[in-house]
Amino acid sequence: MDKLVIEGGVPLHGPIRVSGSKNAALPILLACILPQGQVNLTNVPRLRDIHTTLKLLDILGCETSFDGNNVTSTVCDLKVEAPYDLVKTMRASVLCLGPLLALKGEAKVALPGGCAIGARPVDLHLTAFEQMGATFDLDSGYIHGRCDKLKGAHIHFDFPTVGGTENVLMAASIAEGDSIIENAAREPEVVDLANFLNACGAKITGHGTSLIKVEGVSSLHGCDYKIMPDRIEAGTYMVAAAMTDGDLLIEDCPFLELDSVVYKLEQMGVFMQEEEGGVRVRRKNGNLIGVDITTQPFPGFPTDMQAQLMTLMCLADGAGTIEEKIFENRFMHVQELMRMGADIKLKGRTAMVRGVERLTGAPVMASDLRASASLVVAGLAASGRTDVQRIYHLDRGYEKLEDKLSAVGARIWREKE
Ligand code: UD1
């Protein structure tokens, strides 16, 4: 197994480019099941989750090729079963449910198990599809859905689920009649999926707001589409610049989509400015200040940036709190940060962080994707050597991370454990 070794304490300087968004690319790739012609996607990040999705598409009967950051996909002979071996490694596989039900009237998808950051059920997805006319059985660990022809429906989500909104958007695009999705997720990745579907001939309006309307069409066609840049990767580099007291120019940075993060970073004493070529990030005048953060659905503060901001707060003057409202068990980085000298107290879903003078390098264990990113960022600023173990999590979500960080001055490399 690989680990990342970091010799910390070097301020990062220079330009760093953001890759295509993982969380936009995953649903868009699964939406490639729907169109009847060829889809050409660009800016697809080369990540483990993307390779898993391509494997799933292959099993489902789509022919794909992945060259550089370009994916082409054509549907051949569509199958309806997503096997456990793939679904267990990537929860987003459940997003093939909507396209398969809409196209084939049947879908058999392994029930995703619990994962490191909480139970994460898919009940809201299933209830929505039931409203559209599908019925479900649980059959040997598989969700088996069937319907005659999916019908448009008026769906109200109890919670603005990202995956649920995406699943329904895909299905509703070619369902019979119109759909309304109330309390829809407003995340930029949902908007990117809707834009992709519209480029394929879907009739979706209101995406980006909590009320989305979908006029069902009889079929979709192929298109060329560029995946949006990854706002969480960009946010992680912002934290890395501030954490190491460096000065980064983040290229291809989705600045507007990072509003809530930018706002908190500015409160903490980080200076950010749009310049030609990207967003420049450095500390305002030396010190960082503790702030209070609550994770929320978009446009609130994203749960996927929680671990990184907590890491930054470890070096702030004074104390701050972080309340995690989206996932019930997303504080696994806390114990590891404490091994590096952080002062954090946990009470239920709230972490209280008191800034310390410095973090010290230590062997630490990555537990999920964003927790891993926070440990890398901590290692970049810590004095001495940090070994981040179990980095297969990082390879799920950050393209060429150590190469990109090395290019801006970090002493970071990969070793076999
Ligand atoms: C997506 C992102 C993930 C991000 C999350 C929240 C992808 C591939 N993943 O995950 O990185 O952290 O949005 O921004 O895009 N829930 C239910 N029942 C459901 C669906 C969700 O109870 O049917 C709960 C979940 O357990 C969780 C919360 O709702 O506590 C958020 O889930 P959701 O918005 O659906 O996130 P994902 O699509 O899984």
Structure characterization notes:
The protein has helices at residues 22-31, 48-60, 84-87, 97-104, 123-131, 162-173, 188-199, 231-243, 259-267, 306-313, 333-339, 369-381, 392-397, 401-407, and strands at 2-7, 13-17, 39-42, 62-67, 70-75, 81-82, 106-110, 135-139, 142-146, 154-156, 178-182, 203-205, 211-215, 224-226, 247-251, 270-275, 278-283, 292-294, 319-323, 343-347, 350-354, 363-365, 385-389, 411-416. It is of the alpha/beta class and 417 residues long. The longest helix has 13 residues, at 48-60. The mean pLDDT is 95. The protein binds uridine-diphosphate-N-acetylglucosamine. Uridine-diphosphate-N-acetylglucosamine binds at residues 23, 26, 92, 118-125, 159, 161-164, 189, 302-304, 326-327. The site of uridine-diphosphate-N-acetylglucosamine has 22 residues, from helix 1, helix 5 and helix 6.
State the gist of this model.
The protein is of the alpha/beta class. It is built from 14 helices and 24 strands.
Spell out the key features of this protein:
four-stranded mixed beta sheet, 24 strands, 417 residues, binds uridine-diphosphate-N-acetylglucosamine, elongated, UDP-n-acetylglucosamine1-carboxyvinyl-transferase, Chain, 2 domains, alpha/beta, 31% helix
Strand content: 25-35%
The CATH C-level name of the largest domain is Alpha Beta
Number of H/I helices:
14
**Which small-molecule species are bound to the chains here?**
uridine-diphosphate-N-acetylglucosamine
- Unreliable parts: none
Rg, alpha carbons? 21 Å
Strand order of the largest sheet: 22-23-1-24
Largest sheet: 4 strands, mixed
Q: Which secondary-structure class do the elements indicate?
A: alpha/beta
According to CATH, the fold-level topology of the largest domain is UDP-n-acetylglucosamine1-carboxyvinyl-transferase, Chain
3D shape: elongated
Q: Helicity level, as a percent range?
A: 25-40%
Q: How many strands appear in the DSSP assignment?
A: 24
How many structurally independent domains? Answer: 2
CATH superfamily of the largest domain: Enolpyruvate transferase domain
Mean pLDDT: 95
- Terminal Cα separation, in Å? 6 Å
